[in-house]
């Protein structure tokens, strides 16, 4: 069976948001013409969300639960949503109602105009810390600078995608994922729709600084070689500098200057270059670790309960 619209929501410990989420999605979607489903991907919740999802699915046939065997992360949960969604249109959104379901009709309207990816642009963000907004803004700008894919600024994963796009994304099985980058990478006709990002309905953010950093690394390594090339640039710079320095130092010595004699100068130079080399090794390590993960070829996620139909 296929449906017109699939709303995909990753869930990680969102017990206090589930009822309100389903209620508002139901309200919005029953006003839209066409059949729909709400794919709730439980990403190894430990707060009882899993039981509530099963119950919601029993009460409302629109709800299709996909339950993971453990926590695999937000990006992987979105991927499972792509895999299980049956809709001709797939909408991804967060469970905490920061992405208001009421925006979905606007996204659908753009799709009807012929756009295949309609991403929601955060015109305003409520109830988020100054630090979160600052790091997020910096992140988007760095990504924009150094990656080859022109990802739209200030957009999250909240977006609508046509079946054509989802079918392409389903073939991209990379382990360290950045879904919003992937959905920009595929091309097609894309457009943004501005919206007000609300404050969380209930619960706390599941994205501490550490996870944001990890996501940023996935985004950079997944779409750019820039960090690898940086080592080359610094290497050329240092080599050029030392070649220039040789005649200068010889001339100064012959002229009787006693500059650059001390141990301190040597030590600083050695420590600096040692640092640069270790950082370059670390960058290399990031890429090699990712190659290793790909080589293992493990499944992206493990589902303990798949939807029955
Ligand atoms: N989430 C998930 N797995 C995780 C972390 C988060 O499925 O390991 C879900 C979470 O339940 C929510 C969405 O991803 O639906 C976005 O998370 P959150 O609202 O905490 O991120 P923020 O909006 O603070 O960036
Ligand atoms: Mg949120």
Give the fraction of residues assigned to helices. 40-55%
Bound molecules: uridine-5'-diphosphate, magnesium ion
* CATH homologous superfamily designation of the largest domain: Spore Coat Polysaccharide Biosynthesis Protein SpsA, Chain A
Count the DSSP helices.
10
Query: pLDDT below 50 for ≥5 consecutive residues: which ranges?
Result: none
User: Which strand order spans the largest sheet, edge to edge or round the barrel?
Assistant: 7-5-6-4-1-2-3-8
> Number of DSSP strands?
8
CATH architecture of the largest domain: Alpha-Beta Complex
Tell me the structural class.
alpha/beta
Largest sheet: 8 strands, mixed
Protein architecture, described:
The protein has 309 residues and is of the alpha/beta class. Helix content is 51%, strand content 18%. It is built from 10 helices and 8 strands. The chain has helices spanning 15-31, 49-59, 74-84, 104-112, 130-146, 163-169, 179-185, 209-223, 226-254, 263-296, and strands at 3-11, 36-42, 63-68, 87-92, 117-125, 155-162, 190-197, 303-305. Strands 7-5-6-4-1-2-3-8 form an 8-stranded mixed β-sheet, with helices on both faces. Strand 2 (36-42), helix 2 and strand 3 (63-68) form a beta-alpha-beta unit. Helix 1 packs parallel to helix 2 and helix 9 runs antiparallel to helix 10 (263-296). The radius of gyration is 25 Å and the shape is elongated. The structure holds uridine-5'-diphosphate (UDP) and magnesium ion (MG).
């Amino acid at each position: 069976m296929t449906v017109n619209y699939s709303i995909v929501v990753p869930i990680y410990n969102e017990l206090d948001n589930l009822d309100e989420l389903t209620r508002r999605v139901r309200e919005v979607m029953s006003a839209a013409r066409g059949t729909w489903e709400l794919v709730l991907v439980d990403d190894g919740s430990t707060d009882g969300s899993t039981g509530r999802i099963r119950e919601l699915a029993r009460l409302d046939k629109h709800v299709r639960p996909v339950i993971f065997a453990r926590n695999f992360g937000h990006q992987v949960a979105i991927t499972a949503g792509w895999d299980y969604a049956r809709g001709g249109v797939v909408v991804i959104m967060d469970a905490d109602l920061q992405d208001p379901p009421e925006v979905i009709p606007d996204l659908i309207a753009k799709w009807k105009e012929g756009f295949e990816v309609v991403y929601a642009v955060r015109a305003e963000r409520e109830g988020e810390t100054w630090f979160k907004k600052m790091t997020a803004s910096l992140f988007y700008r760095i990504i924009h600078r150094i990656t080859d894919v022109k990802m739209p600024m200030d957009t999250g994963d909240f977006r609508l995608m046509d079946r054509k796009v989802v079918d392409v994304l389903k073939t991209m099985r990379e382990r360290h994922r950045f879904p919003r980058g992937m959905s920009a990478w595929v091309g097609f006709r894309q457009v943004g729709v501005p919206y007000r990002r609300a404050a969380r309905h209930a619960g706390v953010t599941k994205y501490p600084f550490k996870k944001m950093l990890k996501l940023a690394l996935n985004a950079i390594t997944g779409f750019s070689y820039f960090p690898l090339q940086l080592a080359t640039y610094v290497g050329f710079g240092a080599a050029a500098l030392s070649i220039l320095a040789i005649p200068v130092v010889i001339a100064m010595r012959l002229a009787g200057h006693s500059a650059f004699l001390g141990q301190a100068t040597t030590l600083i130079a050695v420590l600096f270059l040692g640092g640069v080399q270790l950082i370059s090794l670390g960058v290399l390590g990031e890429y090699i670790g990712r190659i290793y993960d790909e080589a293992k070829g493990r499944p992206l996620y493990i589902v303990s309960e798949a939807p029955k139909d």
